Amino acid sequence: MSDDILEGIFTKATAGKILIKDRKTLTIDYVPEKLPFRDEEARTIAQTLSIVLKGARPSNLLLFGKPGTGKTAVIKNIIKRLQKKAKELEIDVIVPFVNAKTANTAYKVLYEIAEEMGINKGEKKQQVYFTGLSMGEATDRILDFIQKKKKLHVILVIDEIDSLVDKNGDDILYNFTRANERMYEGGFISLIGISNSLTFKDKLDPRVRSSLSEEEMVFNPYTIVQLQKILSDRAKLAFNDYAISTAAINLCAAMAGKENGDARKAIDLLRVAAEIAERERASDVQEIHIRQAQEKIEKDTNYEVLRNSTTHTKIVLLAIMKSKNGNTGEVYETYSSLCKYSEHEPLTQRRMTQIVSELDQLGLVMTDVVSQGRYGRSQRIKIAFPSLTIREALKDDPILTTLAMVD
Length: 407
Prior knowledge:
Order of helices and strands: HHEHEEHHHEHHEHEHHHHHHHEEHH
Largest sheet: 6 strands, parallel
Number of strands: 8
Distance between the termini: 39 Å
Strand content: 5-15%
C-alpha cells in the first residue's frame, strides 16, 4: 500500500465528525456503576458473600447464563464494593479473578491465581513459577499460602469455568472445593464459577458437583425492551449529543433481543456502527450503519471462532458441511472417515454430539428434531453460515484444507 493511500486514510479520519466521546464505555472491559435489570441477582449474590465480613466462609456459587447476560459485570461490581467494605473493617479479603478461556491451560489458571494473590512477590521457594512446577506442587503452594496467613479469606472467581473443564478436566475444581478440609489453622477459600453453559454441571465428577454448586443462579437473557434501556443509557455515556438516532438504538436492541438477548453483542454492535458512520463522515449513526455493522460482526466472529477452535471441532464442522441429510448418524460416519483420513483418533459419538451442542449455542450450526413417522425422530444438523468461511478459517492448516476438498 502506497504512502499516498495511507495519508489519505488518516487525513479523512481526522477530518470526519467525531461521534463517540468516550470509547471505553463501548468496550468489553467497561463495567458501569449500575447494571439495569440485575438488582435481584446482585442482591442475592451480595447476601451470600456478605458473611465474609463476619469472618465466615461464604458458600460456593455457580452462575449460569448465556453470553452477554451480565454475569461477569454483576460479580465485578459486587466484588469491588465488597473489597472496599472489607478494607474499611480491616478484614483480609483477596479476590483472584481468572478467565479460564484466556488462561487456556490448567497450569496457567494456577499461575494467574498465584499472581493475583501476590504469592509470587514473596519468598522464591513458595512462588508458583510461570513454568516448571507440577500441578500438584503449584496447588499446594497456593493452599499453603492461604493457611499460613491464618485470617486470610479468599474468594476465587473463575470466569468461563466451563472452558476450563472442557479443556483440562475438573481436577483444579476438586482440589479447591476440598481445600478447606486442610485449613485447620484458619483461613479459607470460596469459589465462584461463571459458566455460559447450562449443562456445565453434567460434565463434573459427582464429588465436585456436590461441593461446587452449594448455591446456583441463572441469568436470563435480556428482553428487547430491557436492551433498549441498556443501550440508551450506554449511548448517553458514549456518544456526543445527537450523534445517534433513537431508531438506530431500537434496531440494535431488536437485533440482539431477537437473536439471544446478548447485551455485550448489542453494545459491540453500537461501537462498530459508530466506527462505520465516522469513516463515512456521517452526521450521526443511522439504522443503515447498524445493519452494516451486524453483517461485519457476523463475518468476523464466525471466522475467529472457527480459526481458534480445536481440531476435532473443525473436523465436526467439515463433516456437517459434507453431510447430505445432516442426521447425527451420517454426520458421525463422515466425521470418523475424515478423522481416519487425517490420522486423528475419532471421539465417541456422544462427545461429537456435545461438540454439536456447543456449536449450536455459539450459533454456528442449527439443529432441528424431525419426525420420521414410524421410524421415530431424528436430529438434523446444518451449518448456519457460508461454507466459504470454513475454508477461509482452515487455510493455515494444510491437512484440514485438504479435508475440505475431499468428497
